[in-house]
User: Fold these one by one.
Assistant:
Number 1:
Amino acid sequence: MTRSFNRLKRVLDLEAQQGYQNKAVVGGIRQFAVFWVEQARGEAADELDQALVEQIADALMDYGRLPGPEARQKVIRSLQDSLQRREARLGTAVAQKPAKPSAPPPEKRQPPAPPAPEPETADDFVEEDMEDESEPEAPKGRKRPSPPPMPHVDPDPEGLARPTTSLKGVGPKIAQNLEKLGAQTIWDLLLLFPRRYDDYTLMKPIKDLVYDEQVTIIGTVWETRSRRVRGDQVLVQSIISDGSGTIQATWFNQPWLAEKLKAGMQVVLSGKVDQFLGRLVFNSPEWEPLEMEPLKTRRIVPVYPLTAGLNSNRMRDIMQAAVSYWSPRVPEPLPADIRERQDFYTLPQAISQTHFPESQDTLYHARRRLVFDELFLLQLGMQGFRRDWQAQPGFPLVFSPDALDPFYESLPFALTSAQRRVIAEIADDVTRSIPMNRLLQGDVGSGKTVVAAAAMLMAAKAGAQAALMAPTEILAEQHYQGLSKLLVPLGVNVCLLTGSTPAAEKSRIYEELANGTIDVAIGTHALIQAGVQFQRLALSVIDEQHRFGVDQRQALRDKGVPTGNGAANPHVLVMSATPIPRTLALSLYGDLDLSLLDEMPPGRQEIKTRWLRNSERERAYGFVRRQVKAGRQAYIIYPLVEESDKIDAKAAVAEYERLQAEVFPDLRVGLIHGRLKSDEKEAAMRAFYSGETHILVATSVIEVGVDVPNSTVMVIEGANRFGLAQLHQFRGRVGRGVHQSYCLLIADNESAEAEERLSALEQTNDGFVLAEKDLEIRGPGEFFGRRQSGIPELQMASLLDMEMLTIARDEAENLFRADPNLEDPEHRWLAARVRQFWEQAGDVS
Ligand code: ADP
Ligand code: MG
C-alpha cells in the first residue's frame, strides 16, 4: 500500500550507510526521484501525504547539487524524520478507529480517518460502528464539515470571462505571467489550483518546538537587526519571544523587513523549524502582524505554481482577492439532486476551499467535488459524442447469412471462439441503421486482422465500401498484403493509399474510390485527406487506436457520404492492441461499445523473456549469433523516446554501425528509424522480411503490427526507458512463427521502478495482466500518452479513481437519460461547462 514510501526509506537508509555519496541508486538520487514521485503520488494516503510527496521530491531533485556530505546528511536525516512522522500519523489514524480487529486496512486512495476527537456520546460510537458494518470500504470516515457560509450573490458568468487584468492589482505585466500559468480569464484563475499546501494550523509555544516541524508561533519582536554579508546580500534577523522562550528568525535579501519588524510588534510566524549551530531557528518563515486576517500563517497555506516575475506572496494576494470575490459568483453546474445524493459541496464552496481551506477536512471534500466534476464532464462529453454519432442514420448492410462462408473456408485455420463471437457482434451492429461504434481490444497476436477482414467483407458483400486506416506506412502496407491475400480471391477489389503512393496511381485510386470500383481501401492518414471521396463508405476500421486521437477517428467517420436521403455515418471499428482494463476503457472510450478478443489462437508459444544486466550484453549478442546460425532472425531495439529527435536517430545509426562493423561483421545488419524516408524504411523492412538481413536494428517505429514469422529474438536496449505496454508490443514482434522465441531486456539503469516492470515482463506474457500492472506503476496519464488520448487533461481526478469514476458514470447516464441534450434550464450551466471542458481537449492536440 505504501510501497513507494518503503522503497524510499530503504534508499535513504542505504544512502546514509554509504556516507552520502549519492550512490545508493544507480544513476543517482535524482534519477530515483523522477520515478519515485510518479508512483508515490498514486500511493499518497491523503492530502498531507500528497504535500509530503512533493516536498520529498523537491528535496531529492536537488540532492546531487548539495555542497557536500554534511549538507546531504542533513537532508537525508530530515527526510527520514518526515517518513517516521508519516508512519506515526497514519498509524494513529488507524488506531483511532473503534476496536475492530478484522477491519480492512484503509484503501490506498482513501484518506484515512482524521484523528477524530474523542466521541462525546455513546450515540457517536453506535453510528460509527453501524457505518463500518454496512459499508466496510466506503470512505465515510470523514463527516462532511460545513464550509464557512458564502455570500448570496447571483452567478456572474460574464464577469468570470473577463481578463485577469480586470482584477485590482493585476496589470498587463502580471497578467502576462498569469497567462504563462494558463490563466487568461478570472475563471481560469479560479481553476489554477495550488500545487500543494503548507499546513500551519499547528500552533505551539516556542519552548515546545521540535526540529523540522511545520508550525505556527505567536510572539513579540524583541529586536531586529540587518547586516550585510558577502557582497550585497542582506540578512534580516529578529528575536521573537512568547513568554515560554525565544527563537531567532532570519530572512534573506528582504532588507525592507528591518523596517517592518519593529521591536514590540506582535507577529505570527509560520514555517519549518530549522536548526543552526545546535539551536532551533526559523529560516525565511512566513509572517504576518497578529492583527491581520490570516492569509499565510496560522492556516493551511496554498502553494501555487509560480513563474519568474510572480513571487508567492504576490500570487497568494491575487488569488485571495480573486477567490473571495469571484468564487461565490461561479454558477453551480450540478443539479441539486446529484449534489444531495452525493453529499457534495457547491462548486463555489469547493473552489474556495481548495484555494484557502479551513481545514484538512474541508479541503478533502472540496477536492472530492472537483474530482467528481472532471470525471462527470468527461462522461457527459463521451455520451454526447455517442448521441451525436448515432443521431445520423447509419448504413445498414444487407448481405446473405452465408455470404462469408467462402471466406471462412479459405482460412488455413479455424477461428477461435472469441473471434467468432466478435464477428457476430459486428455483424449484428452493421446490419442496423444505427452506426456501429465499436472498440475491438485484443492482445498482440490475438488475431484482430481476420476480424477486420470479415467486417470489411460484409461491407463489400453488401455492395458498399470499407476503409482501414493504420498509423504507419509499414503497417498499412502489411495490412494491404495480408488483407489482399484474404479478400482478393473472393472477388474483392483492394487498394493501398499512403503518402508515398505515386501521384498517377493516387489519382487513379481517387477516381476508383469515388466511382465505387474499389471495395476496400487500406492506408494511412492519406485516406482522410481532403481530396479523398468515397462512393459509399459503409465501414471505417481504425487500427492501433492509441496512435490516433479523437479528431482522427472523427475525420474518417466524416468520410461517410450521402445516401438517398441525407448523410449516413459509416460504421466504425476501432482496433487496439493496448489492453486497457475494462473500467478504464469504458471511461476513456465511453462513446464506444467494447468487444474483447480474450483468447489466443491455439499453439501460441510463450516468449521466453530474460532481463539481463548491463554487463551481460555480450551474452545477448552471443545468443543472437547462435539463433541466426540456426536460420532465425533478430531485432535489436534502441530506446528513442521522441522519434522526431535527431540526436536519438544518430545514436541508433551509431549503434547500428558499431554492431555491423565490430560485433556482427559476418552477418547482415539492417537499420530502421523514424528519420528515414518512407521508401527507405520500406526497403529496410522488406530486406528483413525476405531474410536478406539477419538482424534489424530499430527504434520504436517497429512497435506496432509488423510481422516477420522467422524472427525469434527481440533484444531491447534501454528497456527501463519504455513503458510496460510498449515493451509488451515489442515482444509481440517475435513468437509469430513456429520457432521458440525469446525476448532479452537490457536496462541501462536499474531503478526500482524499472525493476518492477522488467520482472513483470519476465513473469507473464498476458497483455491484460501487464496492462493492470502498468497502470498501477505509471498511472493512466503516462499509460495513454496525453496527446494521444484525445481527452481533456484532468487536473484533479485520476482515472484510477475507480470509485469516483463509477459514481460519475452512473450519474452521467442518469442525467443523460432524463435530458440528453441538456436543455432543461436547470442544466444550462452544466451544458456550458461540458462544452468548455471539451474545448480544452481540442487545444491540446
Ligand atoms: P493481431 O491481433 O496482433 O493483429 P494478427 O491478426 O496479426 O494479430 O494475427 C496474428 C497471427 O495469428 C497471424 O499470423 C494470423 O494469421 C494468426 N491467426 C489469427 N487467427 C488465428 C486462428 N484462429 N488460429 C490460428 N492462427 C490465427
Ligand atoms: Mg495487428
Number 2:
Amino acid sequence: MQNNLHELHKIDPQEEDLLAEVLEGLGRSQKKLPSKLFYDQRGSELFDQICKLEEYYLTRTEMWIMNRYIDEISELIGERCLLIELGSGSSTKVRLLLDHLVDPVGYIPVDISSEHLIKSSDSLAADYPGVKVIPVYADYTQPFDFPDISLDYSKKVVYYPGSTIGNFTPRYAAHFMSSIAERFGSGSGLLIGIDLRKDRDTLEAAYNDGHGVTAAFNLNILRRLNRELEADFDLGQWKHHAFYNDDEGRIEMHLVSMKDQRVSANGTRIKLKRDETILTEYSYKYITEEFENLLSNSFELVKVWTDRDEKFSIQYLTAR
Ligand code: AVI
C-alpha cells in the first residue's frame, strides 16, 4: 500500500510572543530562557549526539527497557492504535514500537523542529508503508490544531519518551498531563519515559559530558537568539554550568556570564554581572510514587517497567 504522507500541518511560531517571552525571562532577577529554544536544527542535532554519550544513561537505559518489555508493552497497547508522539525529534525510538505493535494504523509525530520532522517522517513513511504518517509542526505545549483523521483506529496512544516531562516543573507537569487526558479522551493510552532519582555523581555527569556536547547544546540557545531575535551575545563570554539541586530533585542548567557585560536583544538592553546566570533548563528526577501523585484524576497507572538499577522507568497509563 502506498503511504500517504499528509501535508505538514504548520502552526506558525509566534515570533512576537517568543520575543516577549525571552525579554520577560531576561528581565527577572534569576534570568531565564525557555528550554524549547534549544531545538533549532543545530540544537536538535546536538541533542541527538547527547543521546549517544556514555554519560547520558537516559536514552540507552530507556531503550534497554523498551527492548526487554516490548511484547508486554505492545500487548497492553493492543491492535490498530493511532500513535501520537509528542516532541518526536528524529523519530528513532518509535521504530521499535512500530516494529512490534499489531497493525498500527497511523503515526502522528509532533515537533517544533520542522527539518527534523520532515526528514524523519519521509523515512518512516518509506519504511512503514502500512502506517499513515501525518507530521504536525507545532509546539505541543501550546494548543494546536489536530489534523482531521479519517482512519479506523481502536484507540489513541500518546508516546512521550525521553523523560521530557522532567523538563517541566511538577506543577506544570500535572497540568500538562490533565490536558493530554482531556485532549485525547478517556481510554486513550500514554506510554511515557521518566528518569528516576539517583546519586548526584551519575546525574551531574550526564549533564556535564567530557566531550562538551551538552555545553555546546546549552550555548547554542544564545547563538539562536543572536540569529533570530537580533541579539548580540558574545558566546566567548558565557560558560555552561549544570548541577543537581537535591532539595528540588532536579538538574539545573545555567549559562554563566564570565564578566560584567551588557547585551541587547531586539533593541532592549540587558545588564549582567560577572557570575550571574541565565537558567535554561530544569530536568526533574522522580521517585515513582511522586510521579503518580502528579496524576491526580487525569490518568490511571497501569504498569511501570524499570531497568535493574532502577535508573529509568517507562510507564503505561490510561486516561480516566
Ligand atoms: C529532552 N530532555 C529530556 C533532556 C534532559 O535530559 O532533560 C534535555 C537535555 N538537556 C541536557 N541534556 C539533555
